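Let's practice the habit of predicting before peeking. Look at the sequence and jot down your guess about where helices and strands might fall. Then scroll down.
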Amino acid sequence: MASLDELAASSFTKLIVVGDGGSGKTGALASLVLDGYNLKIADFDAGTQVLASILRAKNPALLKNVEVEVFKNKLKAGADGKVRLQGAADALGRSMKKLTEWSGTCGPKDVIVLDSLTFMGKVAMDYILQLTSREEKPEIQDWGAAMALCEKAVALLMSDAVATNVVMNTHINWTEGEGGGVVRGYPNVLGNKLSPIIGTYFNTVLVLKTTGSGESRKREFATRGSALIEGKCSVVNAPATLPHETGLADFFRLARGIPLAPQTGVKK
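Done guessing? Here is the structure:
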């Protein structure tokens, strides 16, 4: 039996980042590499070029500390103008094999990144539809089966069996009430039923938001969410916001009890 202080000291940082497309989720990973972490990225969005660009500008030698595996199913356009799968919908299976491999080899200075959970849902649906020979129009049971695959992947990475750090990126699913109008934003995972559940797997949900416009435009992590998007933070004394450029590395430090330098400029 372990005491609470022993559990806190031995735990890894596992969190989810929620943000609109183009808000800077992938680029924000650079701060972890600059802070000495090795990244293992399961890339479902095929969008890590921005991360490479940032690291190339700041410290090209660190590019070797980022391993990227892209998981996309091949598509083709038919004579009827419809886009269909080309070959096996094996992206999900390949990703689970790689995530399992990384889970057995990574440690305290590694971070497994799932980027993004949103597009992982799409390849999960591809797999189910090809399996059931319904590639164009999913039925209700197909949604349930695909969501179950995504949830199992999250459960695996969040389990104690995966002794390393984990960051999952997702887009935002804006959910409207019956009377219309946006009421809440949730992690955008396949279907509306899974989106509100995914956050329960995490002790930390960081919301990446953009404020201002023009020269005053600023990106930052909200550690407590917003009026429309629920956030939560495992570090109770963390600032309400963290800068986009250093936010993930800052949070990893806070989670380990390392105080932030005064010049970070974060707000309480």
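How did you do? The CA atoms of residues 55 and 62 lie 7 Å apart.
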